[in-house]
Amino acid sequence: xxxxxxxxLNIDLLFSVDHIALPGETISSDSFxxxxxxxxxxxxxxxxxxxxxxxxxxxxxxxxxxxLELLESYGVNTDSVIQYEGAAGQAIIQIDRNGQNSIVLFSxxxxxxxxxxxxxxxxxxxxxxxxxxxxxxxxxDHIIKTAEKKGMRICFNPSPFNDKxxxxxxxxxxxxxxxxxxxxxxxxxxxxxxPPAAIDRLTEIFPNxxxxxxxxxxxxxxxxxxxRFSCEIVKAPVIDTTGAGDTFIGxxxxxxxxxxxxxxxxxxxxxxxxxxxxxxGAMESIxxxxxxxx
Length: 294
Ligand code: RIB
Description:
The longest helix is centred in the last third of the chain and has 16 residues, at 262-277. The model has no long low-confidence stretch (mean pLDDT 96). By secondary structure, the chain is an alpha/beta fold. A nine-stranded mixed β-sheet has the order 5-4-1-8-9-10-11-12-13, sandwiched between helices. Strands 3-2-6-7 form a four-stranded mixed β-sheet. The chain contains nine helices and 13 strands. It has a single domain (3-9, 38-88, 108-292), classed as UDP-N-acetylmuramoyl-L-alanine:D-glutamate ligase (3-Layer(aba) Sandwich). β11 (210-214) and β12 form a beta hairpin. It binds alpha-D-ribofuranose (RIB). The site of alpha-D-ribofuranose has 15 residues, from β2, α1 and α7. Alpha-D-ribofuranose (RIB) is lined by residues 8, 10, 12, 37-39, 42, 91, 103, 136, 242-243, 245-246, 282.
């Protein structure tokens, strides 16, 4: 079994600020870091650090080559990442004094992936392999359809959310990882309705999909058919929440592939995310397997 993360590679430009800049306001930052990120790359790193055999596919510029070196140092195979003449994806991230963030994205290479490249990449995988997707690259609809034809198990994180998500063949998705805002957009329920209510509605809409909803301080919730599980958050000092959701996804999937129960997998994912928020950065804040599975 192989895991393919077909997704974004971003250079994260991190500014530590007192508060997120308001419209029309100019503020100074206390520190600036240029580091490795992108939901696709972060999820690939989390899956590999958690112990799965991971392949990354996507597109980046010369400026993004350090991302590939870092991914390879975690054991991720990056042969399917195409280098092109333009710039890598970029994310301008403000982190406030409470560790909360605000992100502006420039797609760069993430927006340049072609249908031909998708066909060629997925040809290297087989039925039963896992494909992990987010919403930071182009042609997600085509990738889902191609992966489904292959019999791959599809994991989708519809983030960042936009109206296009509602037109995707989400019935083919095996694992749907969402937060409360995404849950509200998919169900039509108000964002502040209870996570269990959102799970109930989503399991009706997608009866064959495992829904995993992360709800910040309220913990994480799982639903599939009539099955329900939940997990409380693991308390940790919040330094930077960037990449915590990606860490959660990687460790949940890895735990399930290691035959851990849904409850144990939620607990492992919550623990991994807690470690990630207690450290600065995205990809580099993700813990190793021995910090989580012990
Ligand atoms: O999920 C966190 C990621 O979102 C960051 O690394 C940033 O690149 C954005 O894509």
